[in-house]
Design brief:
With about 210 residues, the protein is α+β, with helices and mostly antiparallel strands. It has helices at about 5-10, 30-45, 50-55, 150-165, 185-200, 205, and strands at about 65, 75, 90, 95, 105-110, 115-120, 130-135, 145-150, 175, 180-185. It has a 6-stranded antiparallel β-sheet with strand order 1-2-5-6-7-8, with helices on one face. It has a two-stranded antiparallel sheet with strand order 3-4. The two termini are about 25 Å apart. The model has no long low-confidence stretch (mean pLDDT about 95).
């Protein structure tokens, strides 16, 4: 799946379709060759082709937030993509790199501070796909786990969840019963089917928070 396919799929259900279109002012437009060369020089390594295409064709031109059950997922704009990001890889107070941050971890966003990365050191990231990983912040050490098989699948799953929670004419898309969460029927049928089709390997990572998954 290439990034134009991702844009086309999201446009098929997204309310503000121009954010993903080739209109005069799209958000997910990519930074082109200039931004890619800047970022590649910072990391001083050969970028996986999928990550290269993401930077050139899809990365947003401003921070973009997708709704989730808890904290929103923030997708960093291409100008933020760097090997030196405050609080993760770099301490701006003492102006030094943070030792427990691996320089192969390419940060593309976060969820309430929980970093979302592509690991440039992973063997899979040197193939046609770049798995996307996430870790909890504040746990004392970074324990990353895979949440999507590729960057396109990550973006689609994130957009599907956002739409399930905000794109249906439902007063309460999330139903809380005895501290268990259920996704409202109309949204649930659509969302669970989309996730199974998009990234079945990581279905539980996206759907298991809902008891009716």
């Amino acid at each position: 799946m290439d990034f134009q396919n991702v844009k086309d799929e999201i446009k098929s259900f997204w309310n503000k379709r121009d954010e993903f279109s080739n209109s005069d002012n799209p958000v997910f437009c990519g930074g082109g060759d200039t931004e890619f060369k800047r970022i590649q020089n910072l990391f001083n390594t050969v970028m996986p082709i999928e990550l290269e295409n993401y930077i050139k064709e899809m990365a947003p031109n401003k921070e973009f937030y997708f709704r989730t059950v808890g904290n929103a997922i923030c997708i960093y704009n291409y100008g933020m993509l760097s090997n030196r990001i405050d609080g993760y890889s770099y301490n701006p107070v003492i102006k030094e790199n943070i030792d427990d941050w691996n320089q192969d971890w390419f940060l593309i966003g976060d969820e309430g501070g929980d970093p979302i990365i592509v690991d440039l050191g992973q063997e899979e990231s040197n193939s046609d796909k770049c798995p996307v990983l996430q870790a909890m912040h504040g746990a004392g050490e970074w324990n990353f786990y895979e949440i999507s098989s590729s960057i396109p699948q990550f973006l689609l799953c994130t957009a599907y969840l956002h739409h399930a929670l905000s794109g249906f004419d439902i007063d309460e898309p999330i139903i809380d019963e005895d501290d268990k969460l259920f996704l409202a029927d109309g949204a649930a049928k659509w969302f669970f089917a989309k996730i199974k089709e998009c990234d079945p390997l990581h279905y539980d990572d996206w759907a298991s928070i809902f008891e009716n998954s």
